[in-house]
Amino acid sequence: MHIATSARLSRFAVAFAATCLPVLAAAQFSLAPLPYPADALEPHIDKMTMEIHHGRHHGAAVNGLNAQVKTFPEIANQSLEATLGQVSKYGAAVRNNGGSHYNHDLFWKVMAPEGQRGKPSAALDAAITGNFGSLDEMKKRFDQAALGRFGSGWAWLIVTPEKKLAVTSTPNQDNPLMDLPEIQRGTPILGLDVWEHAYYLKYQNKRADYVTQWWNVVNWNEVSRRYEAATK
Ligand code: MN
């Protein structure tokens, strides 16, 4: 084959692959970039924690979930929420990696840099007051869930199937979408990661300090949006 033709063909092959691979890969899971720079939550959550937490911990979960597609091809063709809603039939690797992927994706989005955090919408504010008495009381219950979770897990504010708000917590990478008997089910609108990897570099063993500081970075605009979507 003529060299020029060969080069043209390989350029075509590269262009073809570049065009088609994202389509082939679209059914797989991917790690989205953080929605803000890794240092944007300083001083409450430090840059190195964010980089390691996102790139390595969340990244490993995405890889782990992709590895399950061979065993359970349908998880690539349905929403992650749908998979988690019937997670009991998929086994521990989907439960742990799929839960982790969902939980961390939510976690990055319910935090925001200064100036973009907003406050609870009128509808969310009314629901918080109606369910808990006040925002402070909701936070107190949430803190108890976060601090009372022994070992690794998450604290959640959820919309229940009856469209009420509730505070709950889950172990490991479980979440309220999962069809597991020990879980209070609902749609998460706010979640806090209380695994040590989420805070140990800056706060060491002082989980309570981390939880207190974390409230400063909550993205109420996003929590409100999720509340309204879950109650529509
Ligand atoms: Mn985490």
List the quaternary state of the chains: single chain
Small molecules bound: manganese (II) ion
CATH top-level class: Alpha Beta
CATH overall fold name = minor pseudopilin epsh fold
Q: Major sheet: order of its strands?
A: 2-1-3
Q: What would CATH call the homologous superfamily?
A: Iron/manganese superoxide dismutase, C-terminal domain
Radius of gyration: 20 Å
* Spans of at least 5 consecutive residues with low confidence: 1-27
CATH architecture: 3-Layer(bab) Sandwich
Number of helices: 9
Q: What's the number of domains?
A: 1
Strand tally, please? 3
Binned, the helix content reads 40-55%
How does this structure look, described?
The protein is mostly helical. The protein has a single domain, classed as minor pseudopilin epsh fold (3-Layer(bab) Sandwich), CATH 3.55.40. It has nine helices and three strands, in the order ααααααβββααα. The chain has helices at residues 3-25, 47-66, 80-85, 92-109, 122-132, 135-148, 200-203, 207-214, 220-231; strands at residues 153-159, 165-171, 187-193. The protein has a three-stranded antiparallel beta sheet. Helix 2 packs antiparallel against helix 4 (92-109). The radius of gyration is 20 Å and the shape is globular. The chain starts with a helix and ends with a helix. Residues 53, 57, 104, 193, 195, 197-198 line the site of manganese (II) ion.
